[in-house]
Design goal:
Elements lengths: L1 H14 L7 H25 L9 H20 L4 H4 L3 E6 L5 E5 L3 H10 L2 H18 L1 H35 L1
Length: 173
């Protein structure tokens, strides 16, 4: 066992010397995700639920757009900043209605900070939630996904409206 631990430590030390990469924190995050999947699988078996044979293309698109929106909302929205505050530091506005934040801390705090401030990273977790919803409560999951998809469409329209309002100013310049 000691030999295995020494190899793991050597691999971690050689991965990014002096860069302070929180590999243990990443490993804990991966373990938490694996635990979540295991728990969902066990809950499905205990309740007699099964995964759908296949998802309708509309459900996949709905879940995809909703996953995008929920991930950005959790990672970048001002209203959700209290959830990120233990792991990030406010750096200023970043785009339309989004915040820029820097990850802080070391180890687990740093790895969780990277997760909660990165919409790409959060997408895996959010999509997993929507997929689990398709197993446990498909109708409610579609409603929630449709709601966030509608918010995404509204966001696009708001941005288009703002861009159209700027056209006369750009033409005058």
């Amino acid at each position: 066992m000691t030999g295995v631990l020494n190899r793991v430590r050597a691999a971690a030390a050689g991965y990014a010397p002096g860069q302070g990469r929180p590999l243990r924190g990443y490993l804990a995050t991966l373990g938490a995700y694996a635990g979540l999947l295991g728990g969902l699988t066990a809950a499905a078996r205990l309740t007699g639920r099964t995964a759908p044979d296949r998802l309708d293309t509309r459900d996949v698109l709905l879940m995809g757009v909703a996953t995008h929106k929920v991930s950005r909302l959790l990672a970048k929205d001002a209203v959700t900043s209290p959830l990120r505050a233990p792991f990030t530091r406010y750096a200023g506005p970043s785009g339309d209605a989004e915040l820029g934040e820097e990850v802080r801390g070391t180890g687990g705090q740093h790895s969780v900070g990277e997760l909660v401030s990165c919409p790409f990273c959060l997408s895996v977790w959010v999509a997993t939630g929507f997929a689990a919803g398709q197993v446990f409560a498909p109708r409610l999951t579609r409603l929630v996904a449709a709601t966030f998809t509608a918010v995404t469409v509204a966001d696009v329209l708001q941005l288009c409206y703002a861009a159209v309002q700027q056209l006369p100013k750009r033409a005058a310049a």
